[in-house]
Amino acid sequence: MTFDPRTLLDTPLPPGRPVASAQGGEGALWLSDGPAAPGLWARIRAEHARTGLWPLLLDSRDPDDSELRPWASGELSPEDMSSPEAHDPAGLLAQWWQEYTADEEGDEALPAGGRAAVTAPFGQRWPGLARGLPAGADPGKEADEYAEFFGSLRPRLRLGLVPAASGADALAVAGWEGPVNYDNDTAKFSAVLRTWEQRFGARVVAVGFDTLHLSIATPPIREEDALLVAAEHFAFCPDNIWNHGLALYAERLVGSHAWDFWWD
Q: Which of 133, 227, 232, 244 would suit a FRET pair with 199, their CA atoms being 20 to 30 Å apart?
């Protein structure tokens, strides 16, 4: 679906263009030609309820990459994605947990005790979803502040616009393939992100080749809650945790208003 965001937004946009998908079809991503100006993400996010356009700060694996992979190069597959509604997030996380905690011979990089040591105290037992927490900061305001902070660290980020009901859905609509080495249907990850939006005030702010950056309005405060959230993170993106272990990773989640993911 080719669209012109200028016809929908009151916020002036920098020069940019729609990006075609990898299969040569019409894509669902509009990409700025140059870096996103400070404050632009927040202004467009504030119009989302009216325009249906979700803004993304877009990064590439190599900051010197002139093709800004996968965005400007069109390495996107919206045609191959299902719908987040088709998936049960609790079931997905439980399934992924079982797959990633199963011991495999030859895991020399893991500590003594294998994968169960990484996911202690739960081992191979899926502990279930973390409970939703009482509302904390305003999710929109938290996202705006994080976008400004993240953009200040990486001033070469481009602006992406996707016609989507939320940031969670925007990843599948755009056809992003960041977790492809684990699952090639990004809508499954969008389904999980939807429930994080509801339970923790998560908002998708920035996306790279294989990275994802969320703002969090209501992070876990108690260690026992953080452990359950960490378990969800392991099922969602095990590469975050292999080298740390679940307990140490959970400590970093306590009170943190930003969650970052990287898939190998």
A: 244
Beta bridge partners of 29: 19
- Which residue's structure tokens are 């977790």? 179
Q: CA-CA distances (angstroms) from residue 153 to 69, 149, 167, 261?
A: 19, 7, 21, 17
**β-strand partners of 258:** 215
Tell me the helix, strand and coil percentages in the chain, rounded to 5. 40, 15, 45
Range list of β-strands (E), 137-223: 158-163, 202-207, 211-216
The pLDDT score that the predictor gives to residue 137 is 87
Q: Answer whether the bond into residue 70 is a cis peptide, omega within 30°.
A: yes
Query: What type of residue is 196?
Result: W
Q: What pLDDT sits at residue 104?
A: 63
